[in-house]
Amino acid sequence: MSEAIKLFVEDARAVSIEAAAKILNLKFKRSGVEHPQPCPHCGGTDTFAFNTGKEKWNCRAGGIGGNDAIGMVAHCEGLDVKSREGLLEACSIVLGRDIPDEGERESDEDRQARKKRLEERRLQNEADAAARAASQDEFREKERAKARGIIKTATGLRTSVDPRGRHYLEYRCNGFPDASWLRFGASVPYWHGQDERGAPLELFSGPAIVAPFIGPDLVEIGCHITWIDLRQPPKYRPLLYGLTKKGLACGLLDWAFSDAPPLAIDLADGLYEQLPAKKMRGSKKGGLIPIAGHPDCSRWVGGEGIENGVAFGVWEGFRADTFYFAAGDLGNLTGPAEPSSRFAHPMLKKPDAKGVLRALMVQGPKPKRDQGADDAMWVADHVDELVLLADGDSEPVMTAAAMARARARHARPGRLIPIVWPRAGYDFSRMAVETGE
Fold first, then answer.
1. Maximum Cα interatomic distance, the chain, rounded to a whole number of Å
2. Cα-to-chain-centroid distance, residue 20
3. pLDDT score, position 278
4. pLDDT tens digits for range 311-363
5. What per-residue string of b and e applies to 40-60 under the rule 16 or more CB within 10 Å gives b?
6. Alpha helices per DSSP H over 300-395
7. What are the two backbone dihedrals, phi and then psi, of residue 91, each rounded to the nearest 5 degrees?
8. 3-state secondary structure of 302
9. Which of 76, 177, 194, 335 is the most exposed place for a label (fewest CB within 10 A)?
C-alpha cells in the first residue's frame, strides 16, 4: 500500500460516526446520542443503530457492528472492508473524494510533507481513540450505577403487592416464574429527549418489569426495562411517540403521554416516530438476563427475549435442573459473524448506491475469528445442554444463519446445543397464549 493510500485511509479513520451518518443520509432522532432505525443493508424496523456519544454502530439483523465510520459505511453500502477494493471504496464515500492514483508522480518535497502528515494523522488518531476509550469507560460505569439503582428500587415480581407485572406475563406467556430474578416497578420513568438546557426529559412514568443483566460473576452490569400497559393488547405495552427533527422543523409540538396518538399521515411522513417500550441501561455486552433457576444448573434454556424464555419455561413447568435466561438481543445471543461467511439471500434484494437491485447479503453462520469473550453472552463451562430458542416471526434465512452462528459460538466438547423453533410465523410467547399451554 503506497503512502498516498495510507494517508487516504488514515484521513477516513478520523471521520466521526456522526459525520458518516450524515453522508449516508441516516436517520437522526431529535435528541440523544442513540439513533435506531431500519438497517440500510438488512432492512427491518429498528435493527440498526449508531451512537454518536460512544462512536459505535450496530446491526442486530446482521450481527455486526463497530466503532468507526469506515466499517459503518461499508456495511450500509454492502462493501467488504476485508478486500482492498471494498476498504478504499468505503474510505472514498466517507471522505467524499476519489481514491488516489497510486501511479501519480510527486516531488521529494511533496513526499516528505505527505509522510509527515501521515504520521501526524496516525498519532492523532491513536490519541483520539485513547480519549474516546477513557470517556466510554467513565460513561459505562455511570450507566451501570444507574441500572443498579433502577433494579434496587424495584420489588420482586412474584411477591409484589402490585400484580400488574405478573398479569403482563400471564397475558403474554401464560404464566410467570416462581423466581426472584425478575422485578417490578410501579412507576419507572421513561426518559426521552432533552430540554433547552440539555437535561433529559421524562416522557412519562409507568409500570414496568425490570430485569438485571448479569456477568459470569453474577454481578449486575445493566438492566432491561419493559414498560407495560394492560389496556393495549396484544403486546400489552404502552404506545409511545416522539417528535422527529423533521417534525420540529415543521413547527409541531412534542407528543405527551396524555395526548392522542399522532395522525397516521404524520407518522408516515416522518414527523413523529413510535418509540420502543423496552430499553436497556448500563451494559448488556457479554451479559445475560436470568429468568428462573440458577446458573449452576447444567441445562440452560433461552433465546433473544424475556417473553419467549418465560413462555417456554411455563410450557416445560420450569424444570428444577434448568436455568432459563434471555440474551436481550440477537447480537448478544450469537456474537459477530466471520465476514467471509456472508452469503447472498436467496430471495431478498436491495438497491445499491446506483439503484441497481442486488441480492441482500446475510451475516453468515460462522462466528468471527479471534472475537472477545464478551462479544456474546456468557455460558458457564459446566453447561452440558444449551437449548437455544429461535423466533419464528423473524426473517427466516437471517434468523437461521444467526442461530447456527450462536450454536457454533457456544459449542464445547460434549455439549448438546439443540435449536428449538416455534410454529412458522409465531414466537413461543404467541404460541403459549393461543394454545393455553
1. 80
2. 19
3. 95
4. 999 999 999 999 999 999 999 999 999 988 999 999 998 887 678 888 888 99
5. bbbbbeebbbbbbebbbbbbb
6. 306-316, 330-334
7. -65, -40
8. strand
9. 194
Show the beta-strand stretches assigned E in 306-436. Answer: 322-326, 343-351, 357-362, 385-389, 419-420
Grouping H, G, I as helix, E, B as strand and the rest as coil, residue 419 is: strand
- What residue has cell string 455511570? 142
Distance CA 338, CA 360 (A): 17
Give the span between the Cα atoms of 179 and 160, in whole angstroms. Answer: 12
> What pLDDT sits at residue 115?
64
Say if residue 13 is exposed, middle or buried (CB neighbours under 10 Å; 0-12, 13-18, 19+). Answer: middle
Phi-psi region of 328 (alpha: psi -120 to 50; beta: other; left: phi over 0): left
The neighbour count for residue 129, using CB atoms within 10 Å, is 14
**Domain-by-domain residue ranges, the chain?**
3-120, 151-283, 315-435
Q: Which of 280, 281, 314 is nearest to 389 (CA)?
A: 314
Q: What gap in Å lies between CA 362 and CA 61, rounded to an integer?
A: 9
Superfamily of domain 3-120: Zinc finger, CHC2-typedomain (3.90.580.10)
What is the Cα–Cα distance from 308 to 269, expressed in whole angstroms?
A: 33
What is the structure's pLDDT at 411?
Answer: 96
Closest Cα to residue 303, out of 288, 319, 317?
288
Which cell is 29 given?
Answer: 432522532
Yes or no: say if 118 and 10 are a contact pair by the CB < 8 Å rule.
yes
- Within 10 angstroms of residue 260's Cβ, the number of other Cβ atoms is 7
CB 213, CB 222: distance < 8 Å: yes
Residue 386 reports pLDDT greater than 60: yes
